[in-house]
Amino acid sequence: GGTVQFDAxxxxxxxxxxxxxxxxxxxxxxxxxxxxxxxxAGKSTLARLLFRFYDVGxxxxxxxxxxxxxxxxxxxxxxxxxxxxxxxLFNDSIGYNIAYGSPGASEEQIWAALxxxxxxxxxxxxxxxxxxxxxxxxxxxxxxxKQRIAIARVLLKNPxxxxxxxxxxxxxxxxxRLILEALNAVSARRTTLAIAHRxxxxxxxxxxxxxxxxxxxxxxxxxxxxxxx
Length: 229
Ligand code: ADP
Ligand code: ADP
Known about the structure:
Blueprint lengths: L3 E8 L8 E8 L4 E5 L6 H8 L7 E6 L2 E2 L5 H7 E4 L10 H6 L7 H10 L26 H15 L3 E5 L7 H15 L3 E6 L10 E6 L2 E6 L1 H7 L1
Parallel strand pairs: 3-8, 3-9, 6-7, 7-8
Antiparallel strand pairs: 1-2, 1-4, 4-5, 9-10
The chain binds adenosine-5'-diphosphate (2 copies).
The site of one adenosine-5'-diphosphate has 10 residues, from helix 1.
């Protein structure tokens, strides 16, 4: 399962100003759709609607044919994993930060997630500002490392649907390569909605949707969009 369908979705934070207008698309189970468009186009809003942070103003969002509004919060949270732009860490070890949302995970599963995100060396370290009982200082984590922690969390949680929000913005080349490798591991065979500013960060997307001022202006494969100019 994991088919995601947006059917003529509209939304406004404030009735005077529509943000999304008649947005329709479908992501077949296991496929990746990248959403690109200028800042303010409504990309993050669209992701928030899929996570049901807000309800649609008009139209419907369906997962495997079922309206989001008919799903319990619990099953929705289980169905969807998010790799956000800014990852919030708890004041505990990085290993704990990855495992906390998956209490049933085995040691083996935790290590597999850490390996895929290339975080094995970090597992017992603490985030910046903390200190262990033996006086070892916490690590100052880069934005890319925090994103890999978020990716490892999602790998462990193993949801059928994934939202990636600008997952490789503002990274250097090496950090970006590590992220892309981890993203390929996490998005493989998962229904993925990937939000991006730059096309180079979404090479693994089968289809691309261009959003501008809350409307779908183009939709197709990489090659189709290039041909259309
Ligand atoms: P095939 O198995 O023939 O290579 P796919 O399984 O890749 O085809 O895709 C099946 C159909 O779903 C194709 O028409 C393809 O364009 C479409 N498709 C694949 N990914 C997406 C997506 N993210 N959003 C919308 N349609 C998609
Ligand atoms: P994008 O992700 O494409 O940059 P957003 O979805 O973040 O676009 O924003 C789309 C529009 O909605 C922008 O004009 C933004 O200012 C507005 N907006 C975003 N979040 C809120 C909010 N919580 N309350 C009111 N307006 C918002």
